[in-house]
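pipeline: protein-struct stage 2 | run 1193 | Envelope-like protein
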Amino acid sequence: MGVQEHCGWHKVADAPHAAYPILVREFFDIFNPDIDVPESPHRYKTWVRDRWIRFSPTMIDRYYGLIRTDLVPLPSPHELNMALVARYLYGRDDAWPLATSQFMHDQLTRELRVLHIFVSSNINPTRQRTRFTEHRAILLHHLARLRKIDLGAHIFEFIRELATAVYSQCTIHFSCLNSGLCLTQGVSLFLTEEVDLPAPLLNARSVENSETKIAAGGGRVHAAPAMNAGEDYPDDAVPAPPLALATGSDLSI
């Protein structure tokens, strides 16, 4: 897939290690609401079990090995001609105005259906893939033209909004990312901690084999090398996740 190679997002579509559902739920349940407040003494930190851990766009960049170069900000609807966006996504001149109130997955061109599956699983996770909003249409249009977004900041904001929502009893996403950041900063696991080994879901190869739905198979899942939950790391030495032994995705729990 051109977007993955162009943006260097290979690790975003991999399941680097096991996820810990109880730990991740705790991460979300007591998420620091002032995490992005400049004057807060705990800016870019949140409390997990017995300690403050660092959580920021920079930490996410380091975890996924993202390189902050050649970034192009995502435009707002006021900066785009949505008729041209619709024509680009649907591949036909009569795409605008839309026949429904939202964009439809099955109306996208084949290549953009593939990209939409990747985006809705790895970049902007959602279980609603049959139809989508103007915001997601702009994101697809942007990425399809190989314009690289600030993915660390995008994921940070996605998680912050999900964790601080008034009604947060919804699906949790990026469970491998959150588990990895907790463990590498010394958060301890319970002796009976439940572990989840994410099944392979999406990468460039698997997504190309499915135009309309996610393929859940396609490879074996391997346990990752053991991680030292008691070891702490300085700000400039946050380890990247181990190379995935199977193709997959950072599944939600």
